[in-house]
Amino acid sequence: MVFIDDIFADEVLDSRGNPTVRATVILSDKTEASAIVPSGASTGKKEALELRDKDERYMGKGVLKACENVAKIADVLIGTDPFNQAEIDALIKDLDGTDNYSNLGANAALSVSMAVARASSKSLDIPLYKYLGGSNALTLPTPMFNIINGGSHANNSVDFQEYMIMPLNFDDFENALRACAEIYHNLKNILHTRGHSTSLGDEGGFAPNLKSNEEPIEIIIEAIKKSGYEPGVDITIALDVASSEFYDEKKGYRLAGENRTLSSFELVQYYEKLCSKYPIVSIEDGLSEDDWDGWKILTERLGGKVQLVGDDLFVTNKNILKQGIEQKIANAILIKPNQIGTVSETMQTVRLAQRNNYKCVMSHRSGESEDAFIADFAVALNTGQIKTGAMARGERTAKYNRLLEIERRIIFGEYLGKHLFK
């Protein structure tokens, strides 16, 4: 019988130059595998705790305490069956003893959870997506490519955090990726020609200073057309507003880039105007995580036309998602494993969403690494969608390149872009 023989962790760097945790699991058959956890910039208040040292090292962002806690997890898991992921994750959860991993840190918990899954798949010589999803892991996710950054992901005048393109009218992931890479390069040329900065934000998108939150959409549509594709047919637009970042409970939504403040209803009206004018198919965090009344208005007015994704709103938490389902809030959920703490808990949230016809979008974080776990995870859970940044920077392309590899492996794989929003 194969068992967990050793677990250890070390402090490594993410794509923003901040420390994060890498856990390594060694099985009794000498299989060894590691996993690196990501870190977010705009984080929901109810996310599982990311444990930081808060001392002089790395400006307080060190993760040596989390690495030490991996040793505590090892004491519990060494000698156990690595192929029972649910049991492994339950043991980690019980050891922590809190709802949000405030003892061990979700970065410690998730690093071990992911590394165990990867080591187990490697031991059995089964691809990770198939190990986690079985023979039903067949759907290649339609990507959301973040090609213009704003908000907390960029030092510019744009309030909305992400402007993304989604390739729908394609038969496979490979050609969808190619088309969007062409658009990305044409966008760079357009920005350069107009004298805008082509420096990159945290997730690989460009971060120009533009005069409004609408102008990025117009420039993206120009790049789509210049690349030979039809906006709204071949390529559509998705937004991550991250509105919690500019929400004040007393004053409303402050759009600093446009020098105006809107109420919840006025912001919903603004979205309605944008959606009637441009081929927008998805809006993420259109209202604050604390503005549930506003979310009801948004869902009532746009939920039948547009995908409304809850990120800060739901934080990959099945209990909060259940409340949203009961109150008919949003119609989709962003899936970030480090918001909840383990592989198994992430899977539980996805299953709940899918049972209630909420779409799922597997997601990276702004602080990423070369670890491509979420690419396999998206296929394993048939989420149908993934967002993992622009087609630049190695921590982003690692996920896209892994999906290309998976597509070539799956004989009966499906790319559902054409049917995603029908």
**Largest pleated sheet:** 8 strands, mixed, barrel
CATH topology of the largest domain: TIM Barrel
Tally the beta strands. 16
How many domains would you count in the coordinates?
Answer: 2
In the CATH scheme, the class of the largest domain would be: Alpha Beta
Task: Provide the gyration radius in Å.
Answer: 21 Å
Instruction: Give helix and strand order, one letter per element, not per position.
Output: EEEHHHHEEEHHEEEEHEHEHEHHEHEHE
Helix fraction bin: 25-40%
CATH H level, superfamily name of the largest domain: Enolase-like C-terminal domain
> Per CATH, which architecture of the largest domain?
Alpha-Beta Barrel
Please state the overall shape, judged from the principal axes of the Cα atoms: globular
- Mean pLDDT, all residues: 96
Strand content: 15-25%
Spans where pLDDT lies below 50 across 5 or more residues: none
Q: Spatial order of the strands in the main sheet?
A: 5-6-7-11-12-13-14-15
What structural class is derived from the secondary structure elements?
alpha/beta
The number of helices is 13
**Could you give the distance between the termini?**
48 Å
Overall description:
This protein has 422 residues and is of the alpha/beta class. It has 2 domains: 4-125, 2-Layer Sandwich (Enolase-like, domain 1), CATH 3.30.390.10; 134-419, Enolase-like C-terminal domain (TIM Barrel). Helices cover 38% and strands 18% of the residues. The protein is built from 13 helices and 16 strands. The protein has an 8-stranded mixed β-barrel, surrounded by 6 helices. α5 (173-193) crosses α6 (215-226). The model has no long low-confidence stretch (mean pLDDT 96).
